[in-house]
Amino acid sequence: MTSKTTDPVHVIGGGLAGSEATWQLVQQGIPVILHEMRPDQGTDAHITENLAELVCSNSFRSDDASNSAVGLLHKEMRALGSLIMQSADANKVPAGGALAVDRHEFSAYVQNRLENHPLVTIERGEVQGLPPEEWGNCLIATGPLTSAKLGEAIHAATGSDALSFFDAIAPIVYKDSINFDIAWFQSRYDKGEGTDYINCPLTEEQYREFIQDLNDGEKTEFKEWEKDTPYFDGCLPIEVMAERGPETLRFGPMKPVGLTDPNNPTVKPYGIVQLRQDNKLGTIYNIVGFQTKLKYAEQVRIFKKIPGLENAEFVRLGGLHRNTFINSPEVLDDQLRLKPLPRLRFAGQITGVEGYVESTAIGLLAGRFMAAERRKQTFTIPPVTTSLGALMSHIIGGAEAKTFQPMNVNFGLFPPLEIRVKKKERKQAYTARGSEAFVDWQQNLPDNGGI
Predict the structure, then answer these.
(1) Which CATH architecture has domain 9-162+326-443?
(2) What is the per-residue pLDDT for 326?
């Protein structure tokens, strides 16, 4: 299929959202110039120049489309031909009921597909300021690590304050440095393959000492201008969770439920540290939920006290970086266009969604909106009873602009069920309703709507 115009769409940002938006556009026959500033201009979190590099976890979270909102989102995106979901499925690693990927092969897959597509041109270098008018309608998907010059220009164009928050990165450990005389393989409640996670048990005394170490450990100091920047609750540093109460971690990433220590099956551990496979070879594992702003030396000292990790060798230690997002309910319309300057669309995490899948989903929708506009067609927002629709509703008006915060997709964003169901059946009721609504919506898309 050929485009009705030979003019390319400029997409700024080669992360998950920008890569997905590019894919959706070229699948509709629209040529794209994809701008990525790396490696000419680096960031505080990226370590490669690859498109769609994963900088935090390697997990896309639950893949259960019958019991989770994000699993339903996976299903909807697959149905719309998502490149990011194709790569995730092609490069997945064991993770129980979750979808986790080999991060390097994942980004290589995305880059290869885009580099070799005849309608995609990749230009490296920073876009300093808003796209020039001669570029026409453009899509900005620069993510939470938008460059300073472009960020300042966006701030000026929105006419409102941009919001910021901190995001933290978990450390990664070499598998062969883990002591399996203590640690063991098991998924909670034996989900997935039942052996997708490495578990390190702590006694109550060890757990208490660990909490004290987190509280006392030396942390990264904020610059003066950063001190009032909030965290996003979905990616809190582990030491910040520990500050909220000594039992917080036992009901979070260190909860001991659904696991049995084969070395001591009659005694339930007081806390469990889990590690999840980070590459297909199974040679490296990330410590689940251990995002941190502890200084490097403190991370090594404290984390090596965890039973089973006393000889741990770290591929990467944890870190902290600042994220930025716009007040979307105030400044974006229902097609993700900037109200004061509608030639510009926004996509991805900068719009105020949180998570790999959610960022990609908004990139997918932004690409479809722009393609439909170029082809003089109509692409409607999916129903709010779907995961895509619920997420869109949050960022274009479902949330209060005055208190707008980044959000993962969750059933709290969905309209209430029309019928009463038992509590244990509610998730399935939400997903069944959403699946039916999505199928009906997709059947009414323009030609090639399902790709």
Answers:
(1) 3-Layer(bba) Sandwich (3.50)
(2) 86
